């Protein structure tokens, strides 16, 4: 068991972790010294259990759960009567179950802690940043948590609150996940969450229904959990002329026909369709535009998990890149950020310039590798070979001018 070391609010899952938890529950002590245990909930799949705990500062509490093995880490305690902390499972692989319970009880048996708490189960990674505030001198009715700046969009941001009495609310688009009001002399506890909309600073305001001398709030963000699925290919071209099929492979996922995949992070990328073929296999068809960057794919089943791929400007190089008029050249094609294996080979490349120049149907051996026969034509000059799937071009000098066997490339703009 780990001694509870007072807390601060907690946080979101990242890169697209939903603010909606896998499970959540609150509990309040039956008497000042009894401690509290939740009813069982299904926390299967969770990688982090996050709590907002309220108790008397002079009588610290200890967190245990039905696993009998999970350890908890807590933020610095805020306030005194009550004190408030945010706590979370220390391991990225906690033991959870379909009948999971959490208990908060006085560290010293028989001491009056007046404890209450709320917990939520999420699929998130390690804590990223945290802050908190308390007012136990004046009768404050409003209190900012203090700012935090998440490292990535989509991190889970969690905020906890513990007024002595009253019913608090929170702004900045946070949703109160769960709460338990004051019961007799037992303290209330509140837990709210938000999926970070950007990497800008967040500093929500809690407003209590009563002016209260003891009012404590905290906030923390959590990095995304390691993604339970991968995407192939790892890079796709921007400005692609047709649709692109992405293959999604899950690990321990439970995808169904009702699973929804969404894309974000790159401008002008459109989702065309999706198909789930098993609990761990799916395809996603997209069309790219002019935007480049990291494209995030999110799914709605496994804790709001995400994976990503790169959208890049495509390029084309050829070799050789010069030759005599009226010759036939076996040209090696090398693509960057291309998906030639998904394309129809006939018509994939065109040639312009010169007199009588033509290009055959390529033999494609990989997404960025192929060979093709180039008919140079009768005139000296510059031929332009174009990858019709991306618009990337390379030039071939008829009559020399670049040096046989070397490569010249023009990148797609």
Compact summary:
With 413 residues, the chain is mainly β. The chain is built from no helices and 37 strands. The chain folds into three domains: 2-224, no CATH class; 229-312, Immunoglobulin-like (Sandwich); 315-409, Immunoglobulin-like (Sandwich).
Can you walk me through this structure?
Strands 3, 5, 7, 8, 9 and 11 form a six-stranded antiparallel sheet that branches. A hairpin with an 8-residue loop joins strand 16 (175-180) and strand 17 (189-195). The chain is an all-beta fold. Residues 1-16 and 401-413 have low confidence and may be disordered. The radius of gyration is 30 Å and the shape is elongated. The chain starts with a strand and ends with a strand. It has strands at residues 2-3, 11-12, 23-28, 36-37, 48-55, 61-65, 72-74, 78-79, 83-89, 102-106, 116-122, 124-135, 140-144, 156-163, 169-170, 175-180, 189-195, 205-212, 215-224, 229-232, 235-237, 244-250, 261-264, 270-278, 281-287, 293-299, 306-312, 315-319, 322-323, 328-336, 349-352, 358-359, 363-366, 369-375, 381-387, 393-398, 408-409. It has three domains: 2-224, no CATH class; 229-312, Immunoglobulin-like (Sandwich); 315-409, Immunoglobulin-like (Sandwich).
